[in-house]
Amino acid sequence: MKPYIICHMMTSLDGGLHPSRWTASPDGNRAVWSATYETMHKRFGADGWLVGRVTMAEMSKAGPHAPAGPFEVDRSLHIAKPDAQSFAIAIDPHGKLHFSSGDFDGDHVIVSLGKDVADQHLAELVADGVSYVVSDGDEMDLAGLLETLAREFNIHRLLLEGGAAVNGSFFAAGLVDELSLLMAPAVDARKGSDRFIEFGQDGLAGKCELSLLSCDKLDDGMLHLTYAVKASR
What we know:
By secondary structure, the chain is an alpha/beta fold.
């Protein structure tokens, strides 16, 4: 059984993802909006959060480094911290992420990898105390990953906070249960601005349906919208 997945994102009114590029507002500011997002993040009481490679790389600044000694590696699953209670999970099909430790702000790191990732990279993760799950097919099996996270790591509630491609993949696969969207009173308006979700040339038409659950106006000028997400049949 998979965890309950909440896609939790913050955007400008026109869908921009980077607050440094947004217009100013008398109702609040970038620092306040980011703090509101983090407060909401904690309020969900999730067991962990999941992002893509690009988002995690912006947070983890480590570069590649050879492990200090020989390590035997499992080509399917490695649990580095069996007693972990909270998790930071990254989707990294090609093994490009590197870490200086197995924890990120107190959350244990788990990496989801493609089947062709080299043993050397797995050994580096083992040496750094990072857990990993390796896909056994040519494509990343997101449903299988979620089942593994529930079964092996006891993760039952997960926040999806990735970039557009990762979010879109989970929506398209019918794996998202709820959307939590914080909208700041600002616009980006740059040509080609990032969006919080995208999926291929045809988008998500026919792949999912959204039903409004709530719409709340917050003190800092933000709107908090929540939607139930249902996969289209």
